[in-house]
Amino acid sequence: MPSRKALVRRPSPRLAEGLVTHAERSPVDPGLALGQWERYAAALAAHGWEPVEVEPADGCPDGVFVEDTVVVFHEVALVARSGAPSRRAETAAVEAAVARLGCSVQRVREPGTLDGGDVLKIGDTVYVGVGGRTNAAGVAQLRAAFEPLGARVAEVPVSRVLHLKSAVTALPDGTVIGYEPLVEAPSLFPRFLPVPEEAGAHVVLLGGGKLLMAASAPKTADLFADLGYEPVVVDIGEFEKLEGCVTCLSVRLRDLRP
Question: Alpha-carbon distance 135 to 139, whole Å?
Answer without folding.
Answer: 6
